Amino acid sequence: MIQNHDPDVDDELMQRIVAVLRRRKELSFEESVREYRQVEAEFVERAGNNEAKALATKQSITNHLLMEAERTEQPHKVCRKIWEELVLRGFLTMELRHVLSRTYARCCQHNGEFNAGIEVLESRIAELEQLLQDSTLTPENRFYCDETIRIHNEIRNELKTGIRE
Question: Dihedral (C-alpha) 162, 30, 100, 152: value to the nearest 10 degrees?
Fold first, then answer.
């Protein structure tokens, strides 16, 4: 049920993403965005008519853009635009949906947009609580849900008290 890897994301794409990641300290945010978008364009073109592979490529790039925006503490407008793109494109896995929701919440926290971060986290907490109602959930998945709720709650509580990280 909980999947950590998408088979439509190929190794060569990940190698190119990692190459940009390795240079992140020498690149400005804008330069990183340009490089990620170039990789995205190249691999979407390579995907041809394989829509699943093209979408997975776009999702992977947008994931990394959001993480880079959070790492470099970009303005909320920038983070929100990337977040909206990510939501529109969808998430590669359930786990990434939760990790990236926390990443966006941290972006909101850096920018004092506490309510926006709370809204996203509360939505994810509700999803997980609903999932926990499933009696067929494996012990591993139940543990994942409980831990993820705990982490979401910690960040949500920081946001509620207006703590900037």
Answer: -10
